[in-house]
Amino acid sequence: MNPVFSGLFSALTYGVSDFLAGLASRHDSPLRVVALSHTLSAVALVLLAVGLGQPMPGQTALLWGAGAGLLGMGAVVAFYRALALGPMGAVSVGAGALSAVVPVGAGLLAGESLGRLGSLGALGVLLGTALLSFRPGGAGKEGNSGVGLGLLAGLGFGMFFLLLGQAQSPGVLWVLAAARATSALLSLMIAASTVGLRPRAPALILAAFPGDMLGSLFYLIAVQGGGLALGALFSSLYPAFTTLMAVAVLRERLRAAQWVGVGFALVGAVLLSQR
Question: How many CB atoms lie within 10 A of CB 39?
Answer without folding.
Answer: 19
